[in-house]
Backbone:
């Protein structure tokens, strides 16, 4: 009691000094609490924006990686298919070896497996390499392109499996036109 009475007497005697100090301290505390709350809100906004930007970056990067993997596989399949004999004739082709083709096939297969979600695309790739029934390769090549477009969220387009591989482009007509 004596301590409380002494404190009360001190406060009463010095109230002109103490009240402004207490008011300033309370105002400071309220300002700090409000600033802290605003900083937390701003931090949450920035964190959410960063998260969205990061997810967008990942989606774009993944899309680019998928596109590159699919295009690389298509290029490989065109090169591979050009080494198959078609109706007794050989298409125009780039010189390569069995070793290069095999290593390239493995690389394409791994990239497709690691970047693409569409298992039909990967199965189609394998069907082209391992199911060489006459005529099935062209339909599988057409199916692979269809699955590739699906994987990249592109609209479906009708592709004729009879003209899905460019066998050979002749310049005979060009030469004839130049002479006239």
Residues:
């Amino acid at each position: 009691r004596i301590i409380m009475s002494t404190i009360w007497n001190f406060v009463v005697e010095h109230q002109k000094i103490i009240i402004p100090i207490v008011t300033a301290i309370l105002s400071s505390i309220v300002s700090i609490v409000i600033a802290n709350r605003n900083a937390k809100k701003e931090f949450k906004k920035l964190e959410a924006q960063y998260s969205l930007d990061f997810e967008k970056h990942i989606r774009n990067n993944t899309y680019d990686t998928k596109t590159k993997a699919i295009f690389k596989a298509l290029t490989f399949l065109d090169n591979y298919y050009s080494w198959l004999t078609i109706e007794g004739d050989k298409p125009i082709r780039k010189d390569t070896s069995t070793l290069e083709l095999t290593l390239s096939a493995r690389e394409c297969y791994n990239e497709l497996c690691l970047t693409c979600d569409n298992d039909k695309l990967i199965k189609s790739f394998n069907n082209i390499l391992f199911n060489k029934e006459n005529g099935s390769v062209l339909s599988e090549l057409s199916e692979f392109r269809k699955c590739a477009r699906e994987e990249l969220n592109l609209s479906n387009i009708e592709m004729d499996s009879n003209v899905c591989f460019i066998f050979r482009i002749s310049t005979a007509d060009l030469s004839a036109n130049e002479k006239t």
